[in-house]
Amino acid sequence: MEKHVAVVGSGNMGSCISKICALNARSSTEFCNEVRIWVHEELIGEEKLSDIINTRHENVKYLAGTRLPENAIAVTDLAELGSWADILIFVLPQQFLPRVLAGLKGHTRPGACAVSLIKGVFAGQEEEPMPRGLSLLTDLIRSNLGMECAVLMGANLAPEIAKEVYCEATLGCRDPIRAAELKRLFQTPYFRISIIENEFSVEICGALKSIVATGAGFCDALGFGDNTKAAVIRLGFMEILRYVQRFYGSAGVTKRTLMQSCGMGDIISSCYNTKDVKWAATHDGSGPLGMHDLVTTCYGGRNRKLGEAMVLTGKPLRQLEKEMLDGQRLQGPLIAAEVHRALQEEGQLQRFPLMVAVHLICSGQMKPQDFIEQLREHPEHM
Ligand code: 13P
Description:
Layout: E1 3-8, H1 12-26, E2 31-38, E3 43-44, E4 47-48, H2 49-56, E5 72-75, H3 78-84, E6 87-90, H4 97-104, E7 113-116, H5 137-145, E8 149-153, H6 158-162, E9 167-172, H7 176-186, E10 191-196, H8 199-221, H9 226-248, H10 255-258, H11 261-271, H12 276-281, H13 291-298, H14 302-313, H15 317-325, H16 331-345, H17 353-362
Parallel strand pairs: 1-2, 1-6, 2-5, 6-7, 7-8, 9-10
Antiparallel strand pairs: 3-4, 8-9
1,3-dihydroxyacetonephosphate binds next to helix 8, helix 11 and helix 14.
GO molecular function: glycerol-3-phosphate dehydrogenase (NAD+) activity; NAD binding; protein homodimerization activity
Protein name: Glycerol-3-phosphate dehydrogenase [NAD(+)]
Domain Glycerol-3-phosphate dehydrogenase NAD-dependent N-terminal: 5-176
């Protein structure tokens, strides 16, 4: 029986992955031709975003300029979507996940599975005691929906995928048959998928790299050179490895994962995403970009970009989120706060100076100018 594919989220990456899945479904007998995209409804002028997607086949707010296939259908009813879907692909900001899961809970099909593209960690509710270490978003999906959850992450800046520029992604999936099926759903000539079994390691790399990217943004703003940024990336890499070994032991990230797109690839792409100027200069090489394209483009590499803007403008993070991300919350500072909490509980702050400094700067407890100072006595150099 043909599998029903649903994408939960319609931001820039949600739109990109919907386009990929809809095109693959169209030429397959394995997946239902219709791919549904869950849209958090909003008005664009007088029109509903879901109506715009279904009539103009373009997400004019979050991925303007990219035509979506006609078999990618926008829907707004979560319970109905859950009852229809065999494969639920989660791609939305982490802070919306609990609400979305509440809408899906009790409305899923037997045998359905999930895939998460969300790079983040669960920060929990304030009144709940948090577990040791970080809580995974996929665990939240698994426990709420009672289904398996694979992970798809990598150096995947949505504006580039939308333009079909070659890239790679890592699929973490413990079931080899399901992994092969998901690869057939996601892979295209320009979006190449490698499979590894360790789902956890793919997810944790995708979350922790945002802290490093924020630090890289500080570095850019402070005028340090490429040597310094390379050091920040390497030290960040080593702190990710150290963090996972400390909290998760041998079940954690292996060197194999770190060499994947979800590890090394994602850190590098997030820290070096300085292409906005180039993307902004031309549209298909033919003229100036429209405002929508420019806004969409600026969503790529948000952590580095806002890290840089925080230092250059001195504006508070929340204000920059409003001005530059249309009110979206930046993930790097949220994740850095969670990591800081976990490290503090374990008395481990001094072993992770980079991640700690990013948190202290984002929360206004340290001057950005002191960032590199924190790295001079890094445990990696002792
Ligand atoms: P940001 O979350 O910093 O925009 O990074 C996007 C990304 O993860 C691309 O791989």
